[in-house]
Amino acid sequence: MTDDKIRALGLMSGGLDSTLAANLMQNLGIEVLGLHFSTGFCVADRHRLLGNSNNRDKPYRNDALHAGAQLEVPVEIIDIKDRYLPEVVLHPKHGYGSGMNPCIDCRIFMLQRAKEILQERGYDFVFTGEVLGQRPMSQRRPPMQAIEIEAGLEGLLLRPLSAQVLPATIPEERGWVDRSKLFGIVGRGRHKQMQLADEFGLTDYPQPAGGCCFLPDENYARKLRDLLTHNGPDVDPDDMMLLKVGRHFRLGDEVKVIVGRHESENDFLERFRDGRGSVWLDAFSSPLTLIEGSPSAADLEFACRITARYSAGRTEAEVPVRWRLDGQEGQLVVRPLSEDRQLDEIRI
Ligand code: SF4
């Protein structure tokens, strides 16, 4: 590293856009440090915890670290979970998108943290892989400008993929980066990005529209809202973690069950049995079901019938179902639930 080299921090999700932006900066002679923020809502965390349920032999990979390795760019993982839920997800100043995604506040929060690192370590500017018009909430002109200002990075936030259609930034004005070498990509299409990936020799990247965060997902958002409604804002991190797996059914104000959908989810749920009730079948292959709260005898029986419904014994007239609750174990012989309508009414 030479003393006069320009140094930039790049927000790297591991997706194609941020990888291209980092690659482009490198090509222009900028020394890059990638920052990857771990929010507690990253889809990558679910893959890390569950493995690949379609192919259990395929090892988990963190896309941001993988992108960094491909480009030979160091990537730091910044854990913001503790502050992210109470400060950003629960109280977004700029509101939510389609789910519970506070995208504008989220960008501001991450960029404020990036600015702190910029100041502490003497970096020159920050860049992201954002593309004007690609996302309805945070990637329109007015919010992009508001994000830059509220993050305290006015003039120091470069979006190289759309730079030519945005006002010139300090790095461009001072000649740290050549504006003519940047791009003017606009909109949701990915054609240009895929073309650039070819040009840059990037072949192994996640599907561009895959999504890296649970919060915009309506199914996930519904479960999170339900949890906050019934448990209040001081939610347990384990409860948050459990939102990412299984089928969730609410049996009462304080009773909820989570039914594993496949072997990886059952293995995952197994780790959360302590302090929760659980239900399973020995006689047939079955999901593991966790019970949260204090179920009544009727709730316990219903949890057994739900579990039987998703087991290999679902067509039997009656099946024996095992349960464990408050240090006690027992067995109930129940009729597997047959009507999906009943489940639809209580599905979260
Ligand atoms: S999708 Fe999730 S990680 Fe991305 S900006 Fe929105 S809230 Fe933040």
Average pLDDT: 93
Strand neighbour order, sheet with most strands: 6-7-9-8-10-11
CATH topology of the largest domain: Rossmann fold
Radius of gyration: 24 Å
N-to-C series of helices and strands = EHEHHEHHEHEHHHHEEHEEHEEH
Query: How many β-strand runs?
Result: 11
CATH architecture of the largest domain: 3-Layer(aba) Sandwich
Strand percentage: 15-25%
Give a list of the ligands: iron/sulfur cluster
Task: Supply the helix-strand structural class.
Answer: alpha/beta
Assign an overall shape: elongated
| Poorly predicted spans | none
Q: State the name of the first-level CATH class of the largest domain.
A: Alpha Beta
CATH-assigned homologous superfamily of the largest domain:
HUPs
